[in-house]
Design a protein that fits this description.
alpha/beta; 10 helices; 5 strands; binds cytidine-5'-monophosphate
Length: 217
């Protein structure tokens, strides 16, 4: 089974790349951020996100995660992302979710020619022997603009749009900082990863770049 590890910052284009590659090659794909988001979302829904026992509750939720359920939900809010990033600093939670991710790969080995996982620690921790590793990044202003476009909001005043953009930049900076500075599995490129900056290229250009590397063209 061919393994492809894609890591990178939020809104860098890694998720779209993973989906496009999976479609192109018929590989199975897992957006590992969804696991962290699902645990965060459950904590919010169950009103446990402010509890002193948040760690314990997050472990319980993580142990009972169901992959099929996750794919059907909308877990894209910034509140969920922020909490996901916080709980992603818990080493025990990462252990539980890491084994779920490895289990996913193992379960799909016979069914698919290849698997693609995207997240923050795929190349360094989950698939350290991946056939191809990519680390995708872009400048913060461009990533925030992409997030804003995804939200598909029509603003009445230009100033409202500017405010929202500034607040997205702040939130994304905070999340990047937390993700890259945590002790367990920080967001860093694997030493053998192809690092690609998507600030000035679109999703199709990125796909082309990556397929050239995979196919050795
Ligand atoms: O990729 P996404 O933005 O959905 O991830 C949400 C959060 O989950 C990230 O900010 C990060 O803290 C955490 N995460 C992680 N390791 C992964 C995937 C996501 O720590 N493999």
């Amino acid at each position: 089974m061919i393994e492809i590890a894609i890591d990178g910052t939020a809104a860098s284009g890694k998720g779209t790349l993973a989906k496009k590659l999976a479609k192109k090659y018929g590989f199975v794909h897992l957006d590992t951020g969804l696991l962290y988001r699902k645990v965060a979302n459950e904590l919010i829904v169950k009103k446990k996100h402010t509890s002193l026992n948040i760690e314990k509750y997050s472990f319980e939720i993580a142990r009972n995660l169901n992959f099929i359920e996750i794919k059907k939900e909308n877990l894209r809010s910034e509140e969920t992302a922020k909490l996901a990033s916080l709980i992603a600093t818990y080493p025990r939670l990462r252990e539980i979710l890491n084994s779920k991710q490895k289990e996913f790969v193992g379960n799909n080995k016979k069914k698919f020619h290849g698997c693609i996982l995207d997240g923050r620690d795929i190349g360094t921790k989950i698939l350290p022997n991946a056939d191809f590793k990519f680390f995708i990044d872009a400048c913060i202003e461009i990533r925030a603009k992409r997030r804003l476009l995804e939200k598909n909001i029509s603003f009445l005043h230009e100033n409202d749009e500017k405010c929202m953009l500034q607040s997205l930049i702040r939130e994304m900076k905070e999340r990047d900082k937390l993700d890259s500075s945590r002790i367990t599995s920080p967001l860093v490129p694997a030493i053998d990863a192809h690092v690609i900056d998507t600030s000035f290229i679109d999703a199709d250009e990125l796909l082309l770049k990556v397929t050239k590397i995979i196919e050795g063209i």
